[in-house]
Amino acid sequence: MSLAAKKVSRYIIAIIIIFxxxxxxxxxMPGDPLTNLLGEDVILTDSSVTxxxxxxxxxxxxxxxYLDYWRSILKLDLGYSFHRHSPVSDIxxxxxxxxxxxxxxxxLLGGVLGTVLGALAGWRCENRSQKMKTAFFLGVYCTPxxxxxxxxxxxxxxxxxxxxxxxxYDTGSxxxxxxxxxxxxxxxxxxxxxxxxxxxxxxxxxEKSSLYATYARAKGLYDxxxxxxxxxxxxLLPIITxxxxxxxxxxxGALFVEIVFSMDxxxxxxxxxLLSRDYPVLQGSFLIITLMVVSANLLADILYSRLxxxxxxx
Amino acid sequence: xxxxxxxxxxxxxxSFVLMAIFSxxxxxxxxxxxxxxxxxxxxxxxxxxNDMGQxxxxxxIYGSRVSLIVGFGAALMATFIGTIIGLLAGYFRGxxxxxxxxxxxxxxxxxxxxxxxxxxxxxxxxxxxxxLLMGSLWWxxxxxxxxxxxxxxxxxxxxxxxxALGFSDRHIIFTDVLPNIFHVIMPxxxxxxxxxxxxxxxxxxxxxxxxxxxxxxxxxxxxxTRGGFINGYWWWYLTPGLxxxxxxxxxxxxxxxxxxxxQATLRLE
Lengths: 314, 269
What we know:
The complex is a heterodimer of chains A (314) and B (269). Chain A has 314 residues and is mainly alpha-helical. Chain A contains twelve helices and two strands. Chain B has helices at 2-21, 23-26, 56-92, 94-109, 112-122, 127-137, 140-153, 157-164, 169-205, 216-225, 234-268.
């Protein structure tokens, strides 16, 4: 089997396993599976329980249910939220746009700034100002993201009233949305930046002492030239895989940021679903997030093989 | 530069551990005892009281116990699973390696926090459950590091010698390979404590923690949901957050220093 086929099959297996997990969880957990599938605040009469049970296929055999489950997944049908009176997929797609608007800029900014600043810090690790910077980002790295949000919200929105307290928009103009998004994106960027910073710094520290760097110096190249034309490229490779894995992390982080800033994205959707035990929404969100993380990983793998001539898919 | 900080980190780490062990002796009051609510920090109550009139300092000291147990428990379990899987994959190579690393890759892709949220929403919240779930999800990076180190160690002379002498695989893995990998496992263990504590704090913040057990994360959750934040009672939510950050910081510092020293000795060789 070629490497590409092996990798792709690994992703397919991952998706099958995670989706199956999503099928098993509500049926294996204590309590009536019907309640577990519909959500806990749904009040039903006896007759509607029987009709719903057959409609959801809960009276059929387990294997039949499993096949039905896959059939509906392929039709992009993630179930119906009785709590919100609309199909789960519709709710998630409208909410996901906002979450991505928050997560993607932070991921990109954090990735670019984190690698460049981290590279400088690793390259000039004796420098005093670099040490201060490292200490700062280490502090951010060790703080739970939502706590950082609470602090930022308290300081900038509450005390100094520079930014709005909640939501994605008031009037809906682009400027208004940007004003609302500034603080959350700032915190998320700091959060992803600090992670990339620490890893890039370590990576550069390792590459710095390798022979080709010494040779480049012996040739008489400028310091910055050695860093950005030779060492940076090699140290960057682990970051690409990391960015993909970080995508899941950033997305989870965005959930908490949204809760603190009361923004109507995926985070608050999950939070509300959690409080009202709206299981279809919870599971649907989990599936969509998984799907996104897995595709980000696949993308990173492809990118990696393009950028690193030592790793080629055959 | 990290060495200096790492000594400070060790000192802080030990004081937090002592605080968790002797919380009954150290805390001025019972964390559930009720006094006047919303007291500012003062002489009676060094860090003030919350909405129920409970002493924040005592809550913090008792909270260290819960938070540390969850962090250590999850990290221990994760390190254990990761080490076993990494050792087996690295030592036996071939098909075993393919299968075990395939599983690791799959686990690496599962968004952990959302999965924990889904499972925990179905079950009654308890902090054992959270620790167990985190432990069974967080082992992937340890497994990868242990595997790559095991691949190296298995080719060294003394392992070859024991194999030639006819020792069993189990014997070789545990007496020859494992002790030589131990120094890469320890920093990983420390870093998993850090991520487990941050995750616990996040999950508790969502209200999925154990309401009968006050961890630092639960304290922030209470302060956020019961209006301590809106009213600006900073001593209520700031102190547990700072405790989490400080503890994670000292664990991470020790872990990073260890890893860097490791790489430095590698270079010297």
